[in-house]
Amino acid sequence: MTNVKAFVFDAYGTLFDVFSVTKKCEELFPSKGDQISQTWRQKQLEYSYLRQMMGKYRPFSTVTRDALRYAVADVDAELSSDNEEQLLNAYKELTVYDEVPGVLKELEEQGMTLAIFSNGSHDMLDPLVKQSPLAEYIDHIISADDINQYKPTPASYTHALDSLELNRENILFMSSNGWDISGAKNFGFHTAWINRNEKPVEKLALEPDTIYSDLTGIKNWS
Amino acid sequence: MTNVKAFVFDAYGTLFDVFSVTKKCEELFPSKGDQISQTWRQKQLEYSYLRQMMGKYRPFSTVTRDALRYAVADVDAELSSDNEEQLLNAYKELTVYDEVPGVLKELEEQGMTLAIFSNGSHDMLDPLVKQSPLAEYIDHIISADDINQYKPTPASYTHALDSLELNRENILFMSSNGWDISGAKNFGFHTAWINRNEKPVEKLALEPDTIYSDLTGIKNWS
Fold first, then answer.
1. Nearest-neighbour CA in chain A from B74: distance (Å)
2. Which of A13, A36, A51, A17 minimizes the C-alpha distance to A151?
3. What structural domains and CATH numbers belong to chain A?
4. pLDDT digits (tens, 9 = 90+) for B59-107
5. Cα dist. B222→A90, B108, B176 in Å?
6. Cβ–Cβ < 8 Å for B140, B113
7. DSSP label at A137?
8. Three-state SS at A2
9. pLDDT, tens digit, 9 for 90 and up, residues B137-177
10. Chain B residues in contact with A74 (beta carbon < 8 A)
11. Which residues of B touch A35 (CB under 8 A)?
């Protein structure tokens, strides 16, 4: 049996469904929404990696805006400031996956510490959690932005650990992003990959401890 | 007038056309070749970024193999070791873009130092250059692998500089990869983005000094 005291969740794609952003893209850019939202997400990650490597850190809210501008330019469309604001605001109003509130409630009743740990800056994360049904269960909202780092650097996971005042072996980290699970595993957290899209394991020689298709799986975790 | 003494080129996609790899993918995995080669390239870059951030460096040849394995698994196909070897060997037999030999010849006649600077490890780069018509023009093959770094870290570009024994302002760096141009600009090289695919400029607040649609453009560079 492991001695887990805190369940730490990634936010985007793990607890919160970003599908509503895709929908909003399609609404504002008919027939181009899918491509825009895919490029947007890809560039959002890529820009965070590149900025980390170049030593040019900017908050995730800035990176998200820049990635959106690229994605719209990439399909030769125009992005008005009103549309830009609507799309960025959509990130603060995401819905949660169906099973999430029930699972979090159960874990809370078992006395577990529940935390979110995300690349998202607090200006994005705090309003998102506040408007969601998860607000009452989440004990800590931790952002890698507090120390100007992005996951998956070891320093970013160290920040989560320090914020929780626990040891690595007391943490179970959950994410739908394979690369995030690799980073957490590399750092020494217990890991559960929430593989919502039936993707292959990332070939980074850092296999997840457990894999579940959605968050209900972690109720069996031990 | 700038005082450029060395023309430094990225390899993959800049001098060498990776289309033949796509063709080989399609030959071995009919109807899935396009998707495999796209995912392969995307994961190849992503894994280099992630390994750099995690402090888990491996040579580009390893990362390229791992990315291929992911890409094939992602379309639920099987990768035999024979097919794997064929596809990895394709990277050592790439053709150059049509205009490249002529441009390099002209620059050499002007007494310029010509170098390749790539993430590719020497086991990939050296045979590639040797079998190409560029071998007679290239004075230096520099790999970021020599110091266990990946572009776009500042350390990687420092290595190119040290290898050439020049100052930053003596270098014109050319790449078809927008992120690579951002990294070189961030470091302080002169930059020319060879925008072969008519993509938007990366939104990283590091604009290229010049943009050309192919390599002939640099003949006008001053």
1. 6
2. A51
3. 6-17+95-220 (3.40.50.1000), 19-90 (1.10.150.240)
4. 999 999 999 999 999 999 999 999 999 999 999 999 999 999 999 999 9
5. 46, 16, 19
6. yes
7. T
8. coil
9. 999 999 999 999 999 999 999 999 999 999 999 999 999 99
10. 199-200
11. none
